[in-house]
Structure formats: C-alpha cells, structure tokens
Amino acid sequence: FTWLGYATALIALAFSAAIGITFLVLGCALFQNWWPMFVLFFYFLSPVPTVIARRLSGSLDSSSSALIELCIFLTVGIVISAIGLPVVLARTSVIQWGACGLVLAGNVVVFLTILGYFFVFGNEDLDYSSW
Fold first, then answer.
1. How far is CA 19 from CA 50, 57, 112, in A?
2. How much helix, strand and coil, in percent to the nearest 5, is found in the chain?
3. What confidence tens digit (pLDDT) does each residue in 55-98 have?
4. How far apart are CA 60 and CA 69, in angstroms?
5. Are 60 and 68 in contact (CB under 8 A)?
6. CA-only gyration radius of the chain, Å
C-alpha cells in the first residue's frame, strides 16, 4: 500500500462503519425502542483483545501462543454476544423482529469493518510503545 492506498482504505472503512451505525440507529429509531443501543459496548470491546495480543506478543502472524488463542476466543465471544443480544431481546418481546433485523445488519457491517481495519492496517510495523 502507498499512502494514497491507506487513505482510500481508511475512507472506505469510515464509510462502512457509518453505514453500520446507521443501521443500528434505524433499528432503534424506527421502532422507538433504544435497548439495542447496548450493542455499542460490544463494538468498542471487540478489538480490545486483539490489540492486547499484538502489544504483548509482537505479531499475530507467527506461531500460535496461548495468549493469542485466548484473545481470539474472547473476541469471538464478544462478537457472538453482540449477535445474541438483539435476538434475545426480540425473543422476549422487548424489541420487535424488524428492529432485530436492522441491528443484526448493522452488526455484520460494523464487525466486517473492524475485521477490514485489521487486515488493512495489521501488517504495518507500528510501534505501540510510542503511544
């Protein structure tokens, strides 16, 4: 990638994240029930284990370690919880199924955006100790 490629990728990722959040807000606003907004906590928590694993192990491309496996397990648990929360809310009639569908569509878009971020910017040699 060149700097122009990184800028284009960053703009595309920002656009797709905005689309995912728009699905979430539509799922809440159209049905006038804001309980699905709790999915935002999962959006913020999902990259945390991966960032911790990269900081402590150096890279995710090398051989597998217990820390990397634990962080992948925690990330998958967070993503599954984000998918399960609107389904449970819809099953218990707290939200309508239409809202659940919009929230799930937003989940797919946002989590693919987060995955895309790690694919595009994950191979870069960033020094996390400079933070």
1. 23, 33, 12
2. 80, 0, 20
3. 887 655 556 788 888 999 999 999 999 999 999 999 999 999 99
4. 10
5. yes
6. 17
